[in-house]
Specification:
The complex is a heterodimer of chains A (588) and B (340). Chain A has 588 residues and is mostly helical. In chain A, 78% of the residues lie in helices and 1% in strands. Chain A contains 21 helices and two strands. Chain A is globular. The two termini of chain A are 40 Å apart. With 340 residues, chain B is of the alpha/beta class. In chain B, the strands form three sheets. Chain B has a five-stranded mixed β-sheet with strand order 3-2-4-14-5. In chain B, a hairpin with a 4-residue loop joins β12 and β13. Chain B contains 14 helices and 14 strands. Helix content of chain B is 41%, strand content 18%. Chain B is elongated and about 95 Å long. The chains are: A mainly alpha (588), B alpha/beta (340). Chains A and B meet through α6, β1, α8, α9 and α10 of A and α1, β1, β2, α2 and β3 of B. Chain B: It holds the Pfam family PBP_like_2. Chain B: GO terms for molecular function: phosphate ion binding. Chain B: It comes from Halorubrum tebenquichense DSM 14210. Chain B: InterPro entries: PBP_domain, Phos-bd, Phosphate_ABC_transporter. Chain B: Keywords: Signal, Transport.
Amino acid sequence: MATDNANADGFGEVSRVRGIAFEYLSLGASVFGLVALGVLLVYVAIDAFDLSNASPEWLLTYFVTLVVPFLAFCLYSADDPAVTRRALGALGGGLVAVAVVFTAIESLLVPIPRLNWQLAYLFVVAAPVAAYLTYVGSNGRPGAVGFGLLGRLVGGAALGLAVGTLFLVFDSLVWFLAYTLGVLPAVGLYAYGRVREASRARTAALPVGFLGLVAAVVLRDVIPTYPSDLLIYLWTIAVPIAVAGGLVVADRRGRTVAAVAAGLPLAVATAGGFWATGAGLPAPTVLLVLVTTGVPTAVYVSRVVDVGEGVVGLALPFLIAGGVVVGALVVEAWGVPAPDPWLDAGFVTEAPSRTPANAGLYPAIVGSVIIIALVAVLSFLLGVGTSVFLEEYTPGTGPIGTLTRILQVNIANLAAVPSVVYGLLGLGLFANLLGLGIGTAVTAALTLSLLILPITIISAQEAIRSVPDDLRRGSDAMGATRWQTTKNVVLPEAMPGILTGTILALGRAIGETAPLIMIGAATTVFNPPSSLFSRFSAMPMQIYTWAGFPQADFRYGVVAAGVITLLIILVGMNGTAILLRNRAERGS
Amino acid sequence: MASSHDADATGITRRKSLAALAGAGALGLAGCTQSSDGSDGGDGSDGGDGSDGELSGPINIAGSSTVFPLMSAVMEDFAAQHPGVDPDISSTGSGGGFSNFFCTGDTDFNNASRPIQPEEEELCAENGVEYVELVAATDALTVVVNPDADWIDSLTTEELAQIWESDPAQTWDEVRDEFPNEEIERFGAADTSGTYDYFIESTLGERGHTSDYQATEQDNTIAQGVSGSEYAIGYFGFAYYFQNPDQLKALGIDDGDGPVEPSLETASSGEYTPLSRPLFTYPSIESLGEEHIAEFARYFVEQTTDEDLVAGDVGYVPATEETQEEQMSILEDAIEQAQG
């Protein structure tokens, strides 16, 4: 590039100092932010899991039984001597380096609170190496199979829990009738129409479904007797999922395998549901979790076995579960002192308490999940609707075009309005004027949807705008109407971008506190919301309250556990959206 | 998620699946059923609310952040005994709770760390909200300094007023000659807080509260500020100091009879003047007409003498037996008025 500066006297010289300085400045900027965030998360994790009290023996035990086999699996899957050398070098060299540097800092400069060199090694060396190896390992066939299976187990369980949570506020009896009278006949008609090429059956599906829904609402209070909740979930959710899974398997493997792959998890789930009733657990949730985990797992296993490659990867979940069990046994047998984590089963299943040890986040978790689910649906529909209209249906010129541009500028400005103002709007409009109630879940969901609406609209518009005009003109040339072009060309093409924008916006919504305070959301509730119109609390509200409690255990341990729970749910939510996006990208 | 791929399945599989569906349906009809109004549980916990079936319904509480820990501790036990009751508690500050929620008829109780004020009474009257005043516990406003400040152990009420009045002393030696010539750093309650109102009422009076201080609703922030500087001073409710006695140093307050340090004993005996203050909760009379709310109000008054809960877990001074009886009779009159 030095030739750019050529002048009459020949080639001049350009100093490279500025370029190099710029490169390192930008490196510094990125490292600063990431390191600061990393340190914060490490400390929050240490507090939440009480790792500062973990003895070196305890860490070593689980490192040997859990981390080492996992890394070995990844290395086996990667099957690359260079990667193995690099990983072992990093693990070994890192051990020495961290121990020396940590001890040197502690003895020469400042004592580092709540950390020891073993923990530092875990976070600074072992975690990044594990992440790298997970990435490399998942490129190999056994690794891909192992992580695919693991993903279905974890994702299925999360999905089951989420659906179970949503049904806490939705009337299961209406859903039962709506499914039986509306959804099932409509899906049946549609499938029949697809298979038999009968277009009339397909057109009839929508009105039939709608009639069924109306009938369900009307009949809800007329019918005196209903099946128990467990049977409702079995009939409306578990059986359809199993049937869908069976159909997928039947495509490849034939009926017998399909019946086993669908029937076995269904039977296990049903048995689990009835057992849970006896054991006093929430039976429908147990049933849902078992079905949403079991069926996809069975389908996946049958496909892997069918393809016949990387079958050994199926052992990964057993490797991890075995590592946990062996580690626990060793810890128990040798009496190694174990840390007492704040984030445990009780924390996510119990109500808040005045004692830190009994404090739980369950009602707030349910509140947040329900609100975020509603916000996702509302803001997606409103955002996509608005952006499609603005991009596809309004002309760019003339008075309407000017109006659209004014609208655009205002939407962009709304994105910068502080969230407290949206809280006031929610209080005035939804809570008081429309009478949806102060501090109810539906008021909160509508308020938060408005809050993130500008972001969803702008990002969806960007995505729609980035669809090449050639595609639209091509579709027009084939004689497609504008609606057909939008439905078949523009939206599928723009969907990944739209979903990315929605993910970012939802991440903001789940952490919002100010608008919730304004609409009068409760600080503490002891029961999860039982309907959309009951008062609720959300995770950020409860965490903020704990941070103000006088007891130190609340301010450090319980708050940290709450933050980690919030992060896990956020990551789970984003993960789902990213999966949907990747699927949309592959489809187009 | 995978259900969209079922289009080209073969007929027999579908028939088989339909048979399976029919089987499950028959099982559903033959098996356990529920009636259309018994669906409130929604989570299979239908059998759980047999014992105290009569009590159910929401209880909405807002108000003081000082009373919040006490109210939520009592509610925790009440909610555990009555699973049908659906309580929620918001920490909005005494004034915020009265003007935004209680006097507009949106909450059943409002907690307050000072008595209701005239303009709030007017607002309630405008909206036809009647209430009774119940004393919940006693708090001892605690004045704290840095634990390294060994030059100070107590202040007279006059000296305290000099530090916090609207035209305050700038350095410590202006307050008392033997104090160091260092600037005073003040950390106190924000003006939305009942603690702020009570501090003015008890020590400053007409002299007004200085605006030259770090104002916050969070005791935590005050504690952090005071422990950060040897020449800082702050005040907040007793609970924070009670739970973290080593982090800060509480000053004795001399109201003319020698310095008295804040403690559960001195506050309950009435020696710790003028900074010990009653904490209140205001139930709405209309709400007391509902049986579960009346029952909770009774339970709350009963619990105000519980030493383990009020003093041990929360850090306030429990009510005496006489106060409790007095409050109970006020409450019973109100309940009678509401239900009779």
